[in-house]
Design goal:
Layout: E1 5-11, E2 41-46, E3 49-53, H1 59-66, E4 73-75, H2 81-84, H3 91-97, E5 101-105, H4 107-116, H5 118-121, E6 133-137, E7 143-145, E8 148-157, E9 160-167, E10 170-173, H6 181-184, E11 192-196, H7 209-219, E12 223-227, H8 236-240, E13 247-249, E14 255-257
Parallel strand pairs: 3-4, 4-5, 5-6, 10-11, 11-12, 12-13
Antiparallel strand pairs: 1-2, 1-14, 2-3, 7-8, 8-9, 9-10
């Protein structure tokens, strides 16, 4: 029997988050909690294993808001700042469980993370308060982490390679502009597809709503939730009315159970 599988969207905003500093648009001045979006990240729980997908600048706040403690590993989609800059905030989890944290990602992503956080990966830097992490390079081949079978999904973020991930009948893809045919085959028979959808208007490096609708028509997931959402999308409640089934807007704190 497959273990229980859940995903929590820790953040569903773009690199600036919502509200955007200095912006006075109707979304950024909204008081509705679904119009407030931290930087994009997620937490997956599969049986006894907890996985964080991306650890951006709001990572600490996201763990506190969702009361998340049990993290066994980190999956990185790519090295942009809004997806990796919270690495140092893994320290309380190190201290709580007295264990190192594997940080998994492509070779290119990990090289950049090691450059920015060299003190964390340098064995000669012995300060007791540094994050206790080790890099695990993954390519495009499926792999197993603890008891969780993970399938990397290569996509393109403009001209930049990015990894999405599939676990069971859940797939999480963010910061994509184009999904190659070889990856489309990995996104079949999904209960839940989490997919970046920046706004209604086109964008050069991100999917927009029209792109997502086309993909859902082909992939036919039971449910699709958008993440990496810009304030240009409009108010959450109004934008949702414009989305066809099975597409809905994600929001910070949304937790979904995935059917086996």
């Amino acid at each position: 029997m497959n273990p229980e599988l859940h995903i929590t969207l820790l953040g569903t905003g773009t690199s600036q988050g919502i509200p955007v500093i200095g912006c006075h648009c109707i979304v950024c001045t909204s008081h509705h909690p679904k119009d407030k979006r931290l930087r994009t990240a997620a937490y997956v729980k599969s049986g006894d294993t907890g996985l964080s997908i991306d650890i951006g600048p709001d990572f600490r706040q996201q763990l506190l808001a969702n009361r998340i403690l049990d993290i066994h590993g980190i999956l990185l989609t790519h090295e942009h700042n809004d997806h990796v800059s919270g690495l140092d905030d893994i320290r309380p989890i190190n201290f709580l469980y007295n264990r190192d944290m594997p940080v998994m990602g492509s070779e290119r992503t990990l090289l950049e993370v090691k450059r920015r956080f060299d003190y964390a990966f340098d064995p000669l830097y012995t300060y007791a308060g540094k994050p206790k992490v080790h890099a695990v390079t993954i390519d495009h081949a499926p792999f197993t982490f603890r008891d969780v079978h993970i399938i990397p999904i290569p996509v393109d973020h403009g001209d930049m390679p990015v990894l999405g991930y599939r676990i069971g009948r859940l797939a999480y893809v963010t910061d994509a502009k184009f999904i190659p045919e070889s990856s489309m085959s990995l996104l079949q028979n999904l209960d839940v597809l989490i997919l970046n959808g920046l706004r209604f208007k086109p964008h050069p490096t991100h999917l927009n709503v029209e792109d997502v609708i086309s993909l859902c028509d082909m992939l036919k997931p039971s449910r699709c939730f958008l993440t990496h959402i810009s304030h240009d999308m409009g108010l959450h409640a109004e934008a949702e009315k414009r989305l066809p089934d099975p597409i809905r807007l994600g929001y910070d704190g949304l937790t979904l159970r995935i059917e086996p």
